[in-house]
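Q: My hope is that you can spare some time for a protein that puzzles me. Underneath my words sits a plain record pairing an amino acid chain with its backbone structure tokens. Those tokens are not coordinates but codes from a learned vocabulary of shapes. Thank you; the sequence and its tokens follow:
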Amino acid sequence: MTIKGNTLKDLRDYFYKKLKGYFPESEIQAMFYILMEDLLGISKNEYFIHPEKRISESEIVKFVYAVKDLKNTKPLSYITQKHIFCELPLYVNENVLIPRPETEELVHYIVSQFKTKKELNIYDICTGSGCIALALKNLLPQANVMASDVSVKALEVARQNAKANHLPVDFFEDDLLHSQLNFNETFDVIVSNPPYIPENEKSAMDKNVVEYEPEIALFVPDENPLLFYDEIAQKATKWLKPGGMLAMEIHENNGIEVVELLKTKNYSDIELHKDLNGKNRFVTCLKK
């Protein structure tokens, strides 16, 4: 280790020196304070008051490993195993995707459409960390929320998040593409953020995504990029109540194709929604 001393200021200098050139300075600063609080239990304010505070060798070692992980492009959320989504603190590991800010927009749209409804049944498909299902249950407490995933390890994460946030959501295992579930006009809302990135885009993606996030939750075959949308749309025509909403996050380049797909099914009021960056981000429609 090349840390000249064992004070917080020495640790900060080491952190900056090792990560300079890997990240913008503002990002290095933000990550340092996050890790300081997470690994050492020391707040940003405490650092400014006591920059000469001494820390132990074992605490320094934690930072050295964190720096190594960051230089190897490991996402910060996987290092801390924490992520905030719709103001909910979530546990995340490499068995689940790190929730994206754009997905929060999908959640808030659903909430805006159903916040006055007194009784509500929601089903989240490909739930991963449980972020969508848990956020909807938190923001629509009157709702009964169910969620499924093909990954048993992802469901372990989702259930842990439900318990930690005291949110009763029914998580269960199901392989959407071979599902034998038989919900007869059960749900007011079916929502999903399914895999949608074609395999041929993998080489152009950021290393921190490709090397750490679960492929099963990201990629679809090049020859069938709408695989999950077709399956969900078909099943949702049976599982939704008349007038129920289907809401799905999409690849920004496939918005028109998903809309056209939905036109061939039993849906009306098909809308393509853009995110705050002006990119096509999710579609919604109603069962006729």
User: Anything to note?
Assistant: The chain is about 40% helix and 20% strand. The radius of gyration is 21 Å. The chain has a mean pLDDT of 96.
